[in-house]
Each structure stands twice: as structure tokens, then as C-alpha cells.
Design brief:
This protein is α/β, with parallel strands linked by helices. Helices cover 41% and strands 18% of the residues. The protein is built from 15 helices and 13 strands. Strands 3-2-1-4-5-6-7 form a seven-stranded parallel beta sheet. It has a six-stranded parallel beta sheet with strand order 10-9-8-11-12-13, with helices on both faces. Helix 2 crosses helix 3 and helix 10 packs across helix 13.
Length: 379
């Protein structure tokens, strides 16, 4: 199969781009491909077939090869997708379209648009929370799938080999997290303060200057060590992650993070996890078995202190974390499910796109857009 991949912003420091590259490099059914994007933010892989440019660049690419289908990896906005599809339609190009939705479709500011729904043949969601989103229940099961995005054998082997390099915690526990900095809750440091056992914190991620300044300012007025590290290439990140004693992942309740690659990488490295946050990242976590789940932020200090005093629990959670992640997040299974889907679409020559979007959805969608616009204007 020859596949044209579209992504709004190509960023090898971000989970969506890394997942896409892993999927492409390990999928033997893809005989040829190209990734087209509006913007290249970070690129380390010199062998990737990548083009940055406008819709004319895409048209030149798509007419130079006999592509089987278009796969839009939706990890942000959809302006580039819309420009691309409108241009291709104007040129008479009509290919089946798969959209992999890398976030909850009703998440504020990143809503799955009526245009995307109308101009796709299949929507793929990466977790149950996204698949079952109430706002999008009108989409038939014939036009959507849920596919977990798994890790490849290389990731499994790298993390397994790194296990021997970890040295168990000393008197001071190194708590760590990795995410975009916008996922750091406003009361995060207040929660840290209430952990009474010896501690230090490592925060890894990229974000706005305002967020970086906030973290720096908060760190200065604490009597324990807090280190902020910008996002790193994968291997460097995994080495930093392997230095953590506990992966403390506290997320705002209103944020969306899918199954979250950084969390699952911590689990592959047998890090005991303390989690507090929304439903999607929590899928596959079982309290007391492969993680500790706080019902609210006020429970986090108690769970951290419980881990500090219970070596056997730390070991149990870590071992089970890796085992459960390998069982449900295999890239081979991900690839098999995608390939079956693509073959089904191509064999039926399916290219008639979704049924009509109901008027009630338009009303709800544009009402939310107006409210968000007004909020931003007021701020």
C-alpha cells in the first residue's frame, strides 16, 4: 500500500509524531509513503520521507505516485487537512481518507470538526473515552474504530536493557513526570509540598515561556530540589525517566491525554506509578496492582508516603506495570488492526465519506466555538 500521511505539525519531541513514525517504520504492508505537514518543529530522523509546504506541494506529491489512501494523523488543529482536501477535490483527486484522532474529539479548542467528519471514510480513536465521546455518538460504528497505539519491539528491548541501570531509591525519593508543561496543574507544587518523606522532583517537558517562568518561580521558594528539563529525543528522555524512583503523574481533571506515551514508557521501565487525573490515561491502570490511583489530589501525598515505606509494593507495582503494558500495547497488534481496516476499505472501494452530520451537532459545535472565542476575548 502507498499511503500519504498528513500531520499539522511535525514534532519528533511529541508523542503523536513518534507514534506515527513507529507505525510507518514497522509496517511491512506500507510499500511507499510520504508525510506532509504544515510545519516542522523538531526533526531528528534523517531517513523519514517528509515534506513541509502548502497544498500545491501536496498535490505535486500525490500526483507523482499512485497513492492508495490518505491518512490524517490528527494531533492538533485541522486547518491544513481542510486546505489539502479542498485543493485535492478541486483537482479531481478522490481517495479514501482515514483520520486517526489523537485526542478526545470534544476536547476544548481541538474539536473534531464537521468538515473532517464529512470528508473522512473512517475515524480511528485511541482510547475508550474518545471512542465513546457523548458529543459524537451520532457517528455510526461502521465509520469508527478504537485502536490502542502500542510500542514496537525496539522500545520493549531498549526499556528491558535499561532496567539493570536503575539503582533503587536512596533516602531521598526522586519523583518525576514527563508531559507538555500545559498539563501541569496549577496546584501541583502545593501537592508536592504535602509529601512529608524526603523528596526531589524532576519535571520534563516543553511549554510556553509563561509556564516555564511559573515553574522556575515556584521552584525557587521550596526547600527541596526541583529540576525542570526541556523535552529530549527519545533515548535521552528514557535515560532521564529511568533515574526516577516514582512516576508521579498528576493531571488537571479537564485535560485530555489519551493513553499517554510517557506514562506507559514509565511502566515499561517498571516505575511505580502514582496517578491522579482524567479517565483516558487511566485506562489499563488498576489500583494496587500496576499503579496507585488517587481519587483526588489530596490523596497523592498519602500514596507517595505509602510507596516510600513499602519496598515490596514498589517492586510489585513496577513488575506488573511492565507486564500489563506489554500485554495491551503491542505495536504489532496496532499495525494488524490498521492493515485490516485499510484492506477492508480498499477492497470495497469505499470512498463515499460519512453520512450527513445532523443539524443538532452543528448547533452544539458552533455554540461551543462562539463561547470559547468570547472567553479568549475577555481574557
Amino acid at each position: 500500500m502507498k499511503v500519504l500521511f498528513i500531520i499539522e505539525r511535525y514534532n519528533e519531541g511529541g508523542g503523536a509524531t513518534l507514534a506515527l513514525l513507529s507505525y510507518i517504520h514497522n509496517n511491512k504492508e506500507i510499500s511507499d509513503y510520504c508525510i506532509v505537514c504544515k510545519e516542522i518543529y523538531k526533526k531528528y530522523d534523517s531517513e523519514v520521507n517528509l515534506k513541509e509546504g502548502d497544498e500545491y506541494c501536496i498535490h505535486e506529491e500525490i500526483t507523482s505516485k499512485d497513492y492508495s489512501l490518505i491518512h490524517f494523523f490528527r494531533a492538533g488543529g485541522a486547518d491544513y487537512f481542510r486546505q489539502t482536501i479542498e485543493f485535492l477535490i478541486s483537482k479531481g483527486v478522490n481517495l479514501p481518507v482515514i483520520i486517526t484522532v489523537c485526542q478526545k474529539p470534544s476536547y476544548d479548542g481541538l474539536w473534531l470538526t464537521p468538515y473532517e467528519i464529512r470528508h473522512s471514510d473512517m475515524l480511528v480513536f485511541l482510547d475508550k473515552a474518545a471512542y465513546d465521546d457523548k458529543m459524537y455518538r451520532f457517528i455510526s460504528s461502521n465509520n469508527k474504530r478504537m485502536i490502542y497505539f502500542g510500542f514496537d519491539d525496539q522500545m520493549m528491548n531498549i526499556t528491558e536493557n535499561m532496567l539493570k541501570d536503575y539503582h533503587p531509591l536512596s533516602k531521598t525519593v526522586v519523583y518525576g513526570r514527563g508531559s507538555s508543561l500545559n498539563k501541569c496543574p496549577s496546584d501541583m507544587f502545593d501537592v508536592f509540598d504535602k509529601i512529608t518523606t524526603p523528596k526531589s522532583f524532576v519535571i520534563v517537558g516543553n511549554g510556553s515561556k509563561a509556564k516555564v517562568d511559573w515553574i522556575s518561580k515556584q521552584s525557587e521558594c521550596r526547600n527541596y530540589t526541583i529540576k525542570l528539563i526541556e523535552g529530549k529525543p527519545l533515548i535521552e528522555w528514557l535515560k532521564i525517566l529511568n533515574s526516577f524512583d516514582v512516576f508521579l503523574y498528576y493531571l488537571p481533571a479537564d485535560i485530555y491525554s489519551s493513553l499517554d506515551a510517557t506514562l506507559r514508557q514509565a511502566m515499561l521501565l517498571e516505575k511505580p506509578v502514582v496517578f491522579c487525573g482524567p479517565e483516558a490515561p487511566k485506562e489499563g491502570l488498576y489500583h494496587g496492582e500496576n499503579a496507585l490511583i488517587a481519587k483526588s489530589a489530596k490523596d497523592i501525598p498519602h500514596l507517595c508516603e505509602q510507596l516510600y515505606h513499602d519496598k515490596d509494593l514498589r517492586r510489585k507495582l513496577g513488575k506488573n506495570a511492565r507486564k500489563s503494558t506489554i500485554e495491551i500495547l503491542s505495536l504489532k497488534l496496532t499495525i494488524d488492526q490498521y492493515n485490516d481496516l485499510m484492506k477492508e476499505m480498499l477492497s470495497s472501494r469505499r470512498c463515499n465519506h460519512m453520512p450527513n452530520v445532523p443539524l443538532s451537532f452543528y448547533v452544539k459545535y458552533y455554540s461551543k466555538r462562539v463561547v470559547l472565542y468570547l472567553k479568549r476575548k475577555i481574557v
